[in-house]
Amino acid sequence: MRDVIIIGSGPAGLTAAIYAGRANLRPLVISGLEQGGQVTLTNDLENFPGFPDGVSGFEMYQLFEKQAVRFGAEMLYDVVQSVDLTGEVKIVKTATETFEARVVIIATGSTPKRLGVPGEDKYIGKGVSYCATCDGFFFSGKQVVVVGGGNSALDEGLFLTRFAEKVTIIHRRDRLRADAILQERALKHEKMAFIWDTVVEEVMGGTAVTHLRLKNVKTGAVSNFPVNGVFVFIGHKPNTELFTGQVRLDETGYIETDHRTHTNVPGVLACGDVQDAIYRQAITAAASGCAAAIETEKYIAENEGRGYPSR
Ligand code: NAP
């Protein structure tokens, strides 16, 4: 029986592992398929405090992991297939092993929805991005496109006007989904333009993106649009499939936590993007991972000697 199993190896999971390790809880971290999580998609992370010259997302992941292991975390590079979190003893299964723990910390993150068009995957980090805060700076004086019509698209599009010469929003309908206040700001912004009723059919370029093939969904007209950067904000999907029916999710699929990272199930905590639809930053994920580990320590101490499964 383990004290704590952490599912996920992004900044939230690994920060939880650092703190849980230092509390002598011997955490087991099950990494998931995408080791390091979404942060590893970022070429150059310039806004994480303590790295004045920036750091690559992958290097940051390696540093987090090294620090967690130094304090006794055990890494398992595997994928959780199923969980049973309802009992006092939590069960976590991979394809080949079954683990038991007093506490489970869910840090499975979220996945930016992709367009699913040719060229998109090829140009990630070479013009295609899912994070304006991370990558906007690299498009100073350049032409960028934002795909989407929700709050994220307009919020991030407005942020990108600080750098880009022009930000063109490409939306598949002729009405935005975003809140009225954001619409008003975006529609009157001198650096912003809109292309309506249009979808991206292909991302094209050489070593980096040079243009998009667009299709007007009403007329069927196809055109090429020259651009340096493509920011896709068509929503995020929290990685909660494993936990459906076990912990309470909100209407958009995110895990509901209280302000101390507890879910509605005793002994199950959640941190990082899997419970955060708003900030979605490495630093906020790390902070909630720290909170989840401290709460784990308290939970175990409080339940010791009260019929709680003995060590
Ligand atoms: P969202 O509200 O679901 O909007 C997604 C947008 O992408 C929609 O305009 C949608 O078009 C479009 N879209 C979806 N799939 C597409 C596809 N395959 N191709 C092209 N376009 C596609 O997602 P979000 O903007 O990320 O927001 C998520 C949540 O976070 C929302 O609750 C939002 O209010 C919140 N949020 C709030 C703020 C804020 O308050 N400042 C900032 C960011 C996010 P349709 O409109 O046609 O469906």
Structure description:
With 311 residues, the protein is an alpha/beta fold. The chain folds into two domains: 2-111 and 236-303, 3-Layer(bba) Sandwich (FAD/NAD(P)-binding domain); 114-232, FAD/NAD(P)-binding domain (3-Layer(bba) Sandwich). Helices cover 23% and strands 26% of the residues. The protein is built from six helices and 17 strands. The protein has helices at residues 11-22, 57-70, 132-135, 151-160, 180-187, 282-303, and strands at 2-7, 28-30, 74-76, 80-84, 90-94, 98-106, 110-112, 128-129, 143-147, 166-170, 192-195, 198-205, 209-216, 222-226, 229-232, 236-238, 268-270. Strands 1, 2, 3, 4, 5, 6 and 17 form a seven-stranded mixed β-sheet that branches. Helix 5 links the parallel strand 10 (166-170) and strand 11 (192-195). The longest helix has 22 residues, at 282-303. The N and C termini lie close together (7 Å). The structure holds NADP nicotinamide-adenine-dinucleotide phosphate. The site of NADP nicotinamide-adenine-dinucleotide phosphate (NAP) has 18 residues, from helix 4.
Question: Strand fraction band?
Answer: 25-35%
CATH topology of the largest domain: FAD/NAD(P)-binding domain
Terminal CA distance: 7 Å
Broad shape: elongated
Q: Which stretches of 5+ consecutive residues score pLDDT under 50?
A: none
> Based on DSSP secondary structure assignment, what is the total number of beta strands?
17
Compute the number of structural domains.
Answer: 2
Major beta sheet summary: 7 strands, mixed
Structural class: alpha/beta
Estimate the helix proportion, in percent. Answer: 10-25%
Oligomer, anyone? single chain
Ligands present: NADP nicotinamide-adenine-dinucleotide phosphate
Q: Give me the CATH architecture of the largest domain, please.
A: 3-Layer(bba) Sandwich
What is the number of helices? 6
The CATH superfamily of the largest domain bears the name FAD/NAD(P)-binding domain
> Regarding CATH, which class of the largest domain?
Alpha Beta
Radius of gyration: 21 Å
